[in-house]
Fold each of these.
Amino acid sequence: MGAKVIDGYRGLVLGLALLLTLGGCTGRLDHASIINKTAELNPRELLQSDVDRMATLAMRNNLNSLYRLLDKLYQRNPKEWRKTGLASRSEAEQAIQRAIENNQPMPHLGGRRDVAALSYALGPDFHGDRVGAFIYALGSMLITAHGGRTEFYLTDSFNAEFIHNAARNIEKAAWMLGQRRDEQGRPLLLSNEGGNLSYAVEFGKMVARLDLLTHVLEERYRRMGANYAQSLLFINFLPVQ
């Protein structure tokens, strides 16, 4: 069996593993469940490698985790969404989602994005919608680390170091969320006080997805070099029929 076929099987296995990992399943899937969970193939998927598809799924699920955190934080800190001037919490959430996915600036952040916005959103000088700013900053940081895209195709490239750094930034942001206090010693945002682990779960899922993608990217580039070295070592000619 040729190296390309072996690599293809390896990519398929990794893809299936990631689908199971990233899907957010609460229970263990049996064989019948896996077979029945089919979806119509999108023509755009033909322009994606296994890793492109994995990265696209990871980004979609990471953004969904952020949106769940957004809803949780708005529920615990209703005064924050009211600072937006919008009529409901739902409208405020939709506005943040649009800003993240359409790369639109947030007025209260003064043009800041990703890590600059993250530091400012949890700083003492920020007086706007702190929940929206915090989630927007994380979302823009994720997208920036992936080259400014939310879907990935054969012509796209990844920087594994940036994706690794994004995972570490999320860990730091989760810590900051629980530790930052105002001048009176009160939390800047109410989140996981009282042993609520749902916040840690969502942060943990995002970190795990990013770390898995980092490892897959590093292995792909390592195998590319190994395959090239093997071709030189054994002087393998390419098939012509």
Amino acid sequence: MKKPVCIAVTGASGGISSSLLFRLAAGEMLGRDQPLILQLVEVSQAMTSLAGLALELEDCALPLLQDIRIFDNPEEGFNGADYAILIGARPRSAGMERNDLLTANAQIFERQGKALNDFASPDVKVLVVGNPANTNALIASRNAPDLDPKQFSALTRLDHNRTKGLVAKHLGVTAEAVENVIIWGNHSSTQYPDLNQAQAAGKSVLNQIDESYYHHELIPKIQQRGSEIIKARGHSSAASAAQAIIDHMHDWALGTQNDDIVSMATFSDGSYGIEKGLFYSFPMQCHDGVCEIKQGLALSEFSKARMLETQQELMAERASINHLLP
């Protein structure tokens, strides 16, 4: 049997985690031959609920789950972590301005970045889920000077999966038949769902859909999908976010298949003219635990304009918390 790996999860008693943890423990992220230890982190007032969730995990008698540990602080929770999934974040409350939200989360992810730097495995892979995810990833990374910024990423796989699902529905094919969609930029309403490389059943998607539908219906629908779900259900995405986390981390750890393109927000190295140092969603390919930006893709003027728009939002977010960054 393989040596167990340690997965740390923050916000571990919340809705996303309640959908995620059982699937992690069943081997969906790292494979059904990989034992694991779960280190679950919550705020102190949620520890009773977290303890109950840990009891349920124990009661599943899952063969891969070697141990469950619960903590009310990231310093202990990240100790020895090989993977860290940062779900917990300050939600936006009524009357809160976006800059206030960014500042509140800067304090949370500053501490988490320092804890990852000091206590996690030197090779830890970190996925930031809590919103605003791209800028929270920037904050955590900047507070972990001993870790490579490429060890951090933010979740745009949910937007990627949404795009695949909506394109598949429109074309009357399965989601599996849709390949190589791309999400550029921020996990927000400025994100750009790009279909220029996408194929459905081996044929160009753009040759199968009307341009007006793509520009004026599909793109806004994907950008606003999270709000649509909140309006319909009264809470944000949980099960679909959990699926996206599993997909993201599975591909990062085990590799993308058949040179498929997936979307991940990663540290920008200047590729495609994007400002260096932002956490920006790019087309990615992963092999042997390393994910790299897919280079050499042709960009239309329409694409360039939308990529710039979402970059500008990320630059504004960074500027609002820049005084808090080391």
Amino acid sequence: MTYLYAAARTPFGRFNGALAGVRPDDLAAYAIAAVLDKAPELDRARIDDVVWGNANGAGEDNRNVGRMAALLAGLPVSVPGTTVNRLCGSGLDAAMSASRQIETGDAEIVLAGGVESMTRAPWVLPKSDRPFPAGDITAVSTTLGWRLVNARMPAEWTVSLGEANEQLREKFGISRERQDEFAAHSHQLAHCAWESGFYEELVTPVPGTDLTRDEGIRPATTTEALADLRPVFRANGTITAGNASPLSDGASALLFGSERAAAAIGREPLARIAGRGASALEPHLFGYAPVEAANRALARAGIGWRQVGAVELNEAFAVQSLACVDAWRIDPAIVNVCGGAIAIGHPLGASGGRILGTLAKVLRERRERYGVAALCIGVGQGLAVVLENTEAVGAPTV
């Protein structure tokens, strides 16, 4: 069995906001240091691996930001590190990979998490097929979405993320009003969670910055105000800057261990990894992929939706979040009870660690036994993890 022992993250900054001057490898290192501060008795040399999520890698991420961040955080050089890239799911994929290492006996203690600085994502130039080309070369942004697309890819697969979600909206008949209401609720829940102190234990400030809370939360947001925003992707569309997640910067970290690792870590676990699931479908329908991923994770955990007390679903877009909640036929009141990515932000590689750490704390505070963390992933994929609260009645304990 794999247990989650601690979780920490930075505040999530807005694009070109308070964290714009911080390199992604430094953001990751700060998150690693913060989660290890929660286990002061742990000998850092006992960490078997660092598995880190990152969707870019083209710039200061330096291709293997997991190893770079571990070194910057002061871990012994003997602690290895790797970086996984499943786009928006990279952080959760890292957590899933870490849990498998522990369950197979390859490791006892693994650090996982993820980072993204969408502000500092570089522009890239394609290499010319001959020296000294006479024509111009176009710089391409690596911040988000498709780039340098292979001409053999079907055109319907490579539409923008926003256009893909407009198509999802048409497929499931989800209105602009529902999307705006969902988005406004996300801001209100996130603000209330901060005001109540929920995030104080999970979020650590970034040295050299003044940011202490997630920068994108707008507590005064209302459905009526969002209704005045113009659609971004279609003249007659429904998706706006207000009902989609913003570009963001941030990092999250998770400390995993086996049952017998509790003594070395020096603390009791928060939750157990009870099930994992991955799924895929047509690339332009990526927003709907969490549906099957979560269903598979639940099946592997041996439970059903009726036993789930909390859901952390990454809000890439309000429309895809609503499509997933509708498909699962669950009570929306158990979804993202402390706000979601529309308000908090979505730094791609960091979001998986954020939702898993948040879910563990929600389960504890609400005394629920099972929860689901899920997110959609560009190019038609979804990931999900089932957590079991180790304090809940009947749950395994170490």
